[in-house]
Amino acid sequence: MKKNILTIMKKEFARFFGDKRLVFTTILMPGLMIYVMYSFMGNGFASKFNTAEDYVYQVYTVNLPESFQDLKSDEAIHITEIETADEAGAVKTNLENQEADLLAVFPADFDEAVAAYDSMTAQGAAPNISLYYNSVSQTSSTIYRSFCEIFNQYESALANKFDINAAEGEQYDFATEKDTTAEIFSMMLPMLMMVFLFSGCIAIAPESIAGEKERGTIATLLVTPMKRSELALGKILSLSVIGLLSGISSFLGTFVSLPQMMGGMSDEVGMNVNVYSGADFIMLLLVILSTVLLIIGMISIISGLSKSVKEAGTAVTPLMIVVMVIAITSMMGGGAQEGFYWYLIPLYNSVQCMSGIFSFTMLPVNLIITVVINIIYTLLLVGGLTKIFDSEKIMYS
Amino acid sequence: MMQELLRADNLCKTFKISKKQQRIEKTSEKTKVAVDRLSFCAYEGEVFGLLGPNGAGKTTTLRMLATLIKPDSGDAVINGSSITSDPNGVRSKIGFLTSELKLEDFFTPNYLFDFFSELYGVAPEVRNERKKRLFEKFGIDTFAEVKVANLSTGMKQKVSLVISLVNDPQIIIFDEPTNGLDVITAKVVTDFLLELKAEKKTILVSTHIFSLIEKICDRVGIIIQGKMVVCDTLANITAEKSLEDKFFEIYEEVAGEQV
Ligand SMILES: Nc1ncnc2c1ncn2[C@@H]1O[C@H](COP(=O)(O)OP(=O)(O)OP(=O)(O)O)[C@@H](O)[C@H]1O
Ligand SMILES: [Mg+2]
């Protein structure tokens, strides 16, 4: 009994691993591609959001008041004071062309007007500074933001009643790297993993089952005294191992490059993949393995019912959409469900488990339920595939 | 008394016809009776030939005997195993060759021989000896490590034939064994069938080639439109006239009735 399953598995592996192109495209490439893509995206974000160190912002001012004269001593800013409305018009054109970064127009007697103004008693509008900028230009919007900041600070300094978080060197934000990592990974990874696992499985199962049917090689197996159930189990087990390798490759690619990508988007996100322990990875591996078994089982059934690889590819599409929708539920955040019954739902349980593992909120009992129930579903699917192999109408029509 | 190794008993097989096919055949019948209450038997050490025109039901009969498809009714017992109640027993006792059983392109004849030997539970020493003998006989040793994808049609057929014999079966069922082979290879195959017969194997072949029947068969069953119309020894059938003339005589009789 077991021997035939092993024989089938050995053949499937010989077929797969003997084909270097297949190994490369289904195992090595997904991980590599994801790594390169995410790192690239991370670097892209980084360069988009961070301006070169030695950049000098081109700022033009009209009526720069006494109180802001010290801006001129900032080396990163080059201030050109202009007089006439004509010149201001030229600067605006430059802003449009992204040749100038900012035009600040002050009222003529800004300092006096500010000193004279009392918001409680004032009749007219407060003195106004006009800041012209170009939000498409990275440098222009950066300098615009810092000028807003400077002016706001100046305004609150004029009437300082109280401060917030003023003490220097004090840690106010207690979010740790672990929390940030947990939040982002638990939101992104379950979704990505489901997609990767599914696409890994779809690359191999239809070929091995619908393909053998299409080419008439499965009939040659069916005239041997091997049991149909052995063939079904041997196929599903070996395909799952390959699917698992493909999934692990994608996972590693994502896991290693995601912090880079997130780090690139914002300086405030501190992520560190070292927050996960060996136990977390073992749990993750269990979930992934049971999920791959289930997905391979599902795709195998569909492939078994299809006449050709192409037909199987089409028939699998609805299942793929379902998987995508389920995968996206993890993006809504909120961590893992606690009720055990959620973990009886195939595929959704996997997403929840991964979410729980990455956010450190996984209840072991739910993990066990997921793995056990997925194996049970897989065995049912093996039974279904056995029936398919046994049906002459499906196999030779 | 010769031992009866194969006995088919009232085998019936009906196929559903697709709507498209109904239109092509201009028929309103939804089913096609491919094999109609077919009975015959084959004895140890004899070559039994199923002779019939295209679409007579030869392949369907052999596929039922090889347990690839199930009869609607009737049964056959092969060396003590029933095709309906013990298909796995039948599978382990027979060797089956038909053009629809393909070999995976990716593998070499050498690999496939070992793989199928394992599925039949053949011990490695026995397998190696058998492989050497069969590969030499059919000249497969020269392309034993060439992937099936790169073999010619005839080479592939030789490999399929050899693979069907990995379990050294007592009963051999070959559907059109010389189809698509050149005269030289066809002769190798017919000579080999005679050798197998000398080893006391029971061989069931289907063909529409009269000369093949005349050369190797002891007994012949003539199938027309799913029915066994004559089943006798070759000597009896060809007593008065040649097999070819006899066949046309029978065919006209039967087909004429139908018209
Ligand atoms: N899977 C199937 N579905 C529908 N009809 C079928 C099927 N298999 C065979 N038939 C029909 O059964 C009849 C017998 O076919 P079969 O292949 O047994 O003939 P054959 O004697 O082997 O002919 P040939 O000499 O051409 O190989 C044919 O009319 C064929 O169309
Ligand atoms: Mg035929």
Describe what is shown at a glance:
Chain A is mostly helical and 397 residues long.
Provide structural commentary.
- The complex is a heterodimer of chains A (397) and B (259).
- Chain A has 397 residues and is mainly alpha-helical.
- Chain A has 2 domains: 265 residues, no CATH class; 101 residues, D-Maltodextrin-Binding Protein, domain 2 (3-Layer(aba) Sandwich), CATH 3.40.190.
- Chain A has 13 helices and 4 strands.
- Chain A has a 4-stranded mixed β-sheet.
- In chain A, helix 1 packs across helix 8 and helix 9 runs antiparallel to helix 11.
- The two termini of chain A are 29 Å apart.
- The relative contact order of chain A is 0.12.
- The model of chain A has no long low-confidence stretch (mean pLDDT 87).
- In chain B, 39% of the residues lie in helices and 26% in strands.
- In chain B, a hairpin with a 2-residue loop joins strand 4 and strand 5.
- Classes of the chains: A mainly alpha (397), B alpha/beta (259).
- The interface between A and B is medium-sized, with 23 and 26 residues.
- The structure holds adenosine-5'-triphosphate (ATP) and magnesium ion.
